[in-house]
Design brief:
Layout: E1 8-11, H1 13-19, E2 34-38, H2 45-57, E3 62-67, E4 81-84, E5 97-100, H3 108-119, E6 125-127, H4 130-138, E7 148-149, H5 153-160, H6 164-169, H7 171-182, E8 185-188, E9 194-196, E10 201-204, H8 216-229, H9 234-254, H10 264-284
Parallel strand pairs: 1-10, 2-3, 2-5, 3-4, 5-6, 6-7, 7-8
Antiparallel strand pairs: 8-9, 9-10
Helix pairs in contact: 1-10, 2-8, 2-10, 3-4, 4-5, 8-9, 8-10, 9-10
C-alpha cells in the first residue's frame, strides 16, 4: 500500500535549529560526548577518517577511531584518538555513542561486534555500510529500537529482499517495511532522504545532487554519531544529521560552485557554516 506524501513530516530550518545541541560556558570535552567510530580498514582507510572528522565538526568532545588493524597514523590525524581492536575490545573504550560499518569490512569480526553490542544492551548505536550488509547476510534483526541504520537503496534492497527498482518506485513503503522488519530508526539515503520510526516518516528540506559522491555517507554517519553522543534521541539525531548534511550541499551551490565538484571533505568543511546559521536562529528564539 502506498503511503500518502501528506503523511510525511518535513524538517525545515526552524525545526532543525531547535534540535541543535545547546552550548554552555561550562561545557568541556567530556560533556560534549565521546563518539566511538568503528570504521575503515586497510582496504578503505578513508571511511573511518571521514566519519571521525565529521563527528568532531559536529561537536563531539572526544572522537575515537578504532580498527582491528590500524590503517591510519596519529601523526597524520592528531585531532582524534586511535585504538587498535586487535589489542583491546571496543567494550573497554569509553563512549556515549558508537558507529559501526563504513569501510569496516563484511566479515565475521563485524558480525561479532554487532552481536556484542546487542548483548551489551548498547542504546546509542548507528549501523552503516558494511554493518548493514552483515546484518542482511547474517539475518541480525530485529535491532534495538534506539539504534539507527542508514542504508542507501542497494543496502536496503539486501535488508528487505526487494529490488532497487521496486524500492525506487515507492520509497515510502520501502522505508516503512524496513522499519517494521528491523525494529529501529531507518534513514533511507537518496533524493529526499527519509527517516522512519515506529510512529512516523519524516524528510528534510535540504540536499541536492552535489552529495552524489563517495564518502559523503561516511560523513553523514559521523555527524549522526556525534549528535547521539550529545544525547539527541535517535529520530532527532537522524533527522538533524540529514538536514545538516543536505544543507552543506545547498551552501556549496549557493556559493556558485558546481554540484559535480563537491567532495566528502567539502561537506565536513561546510558543517561549521551550517551550524553558525542554525545557531543564530536558535539563539534568536531564546
Amino acid at each position: 500500500m502506498k503511503i500518502s506524501t501528506s503523511s510525511v513530516r518535513i524538517l525545515r530550518k526552524p525545526g532543525a535549529a531547535n534540535l541543535l545541541p545547546t552550548i554552555s560556558e561550562k561545557d568541556n570535552k567530556s560533556s560534549r560526548g565521546k563518539s566511538l567510530i568503528l570504521a575503515g580498514s586497510r582496504e578503505y582507510p578513508g571511511a573511518g577518517v571521514l566519519a571521525s572528522k565529521a563527528a568532531l565538526r559536529m561537536g563531539s568532545g572526544y572522537v575515537i577511531l578504532a580498527q582491528p588493524d590500524l590503517a591510519v597514523s596519529a601523526w597524520d590525524h592528531p585531532d582524534f584518538l586511535l585504538k587498535d581492536l586487535s589489542r583491546e575490545s571496543w567494550q573497554d573504550i569509553e563512549h556515549q555513542a558508537i558507529l559501526v560499518g563504513p569501510g569496516f569490512g563484511v566479515n565475521s569480526f563485524t558480525a561479532k561486534v554487532i552481536r556484542e553490542l546487542i548483548k551489551a544492551q548498547e542504546t546509542h548505536v548507528i549501523l552503516d555500510a558494511d554493518a548493514l550488509t552483515v546484518c542482511a547476510e547474517e539475518k541480525i534483526f530485529p535491532l534495538p529500537p534506539s539504534w539507527i541504520v542508514t542504508p542507501h537503496t542497494g543496502e536496503l534492497s539486501r535488508l528487505i529482499g526487494k529490488s532497487s527498482v521496486e524500492i525506487n518506485k515507492d520509497r515510502l513503503s520501502a522505508v516503512r517495511e524496513a522499519q517494521t522488519k528491523l525494529g529501529c530508526v531507518v534513514l533511507l539515503k537518496g533524493h529526499r532522504t527519509l527517516v522512519a520510526t515506529a510512529n512516523e516518516i519524516a524528510t528534510i528540506a535540504t540536499g541536492n545532487s552535489a552529495l552524489a559522491k563517495s564518502g559523503t555517507g561516511d560523513v553523514l554517519a559521523g555527524i549522526m554519531t556525534a549528535l547521539r553522543a550529545q544525547n539527541l534521541n535517535a529520530p532527532e539525531a537522524a533527522l538533524l544529521a540529514a538536514y545538516i548534511h543536505g544543507a552543506t550541499a545547498n551552501l556549496w551551490v549557493a556559493r556558485r560552485k558546481d554540484p559535480l565538484s563537491m567532495m566528502a571533505s567539502d561537506v565536513i568543511d561546510l558543517i561549521p557554516d551550517v551550524l553558525f546559521h542554525l545557531r543564530k536562529i536558535k539563539n534568536a528564539s531564546l
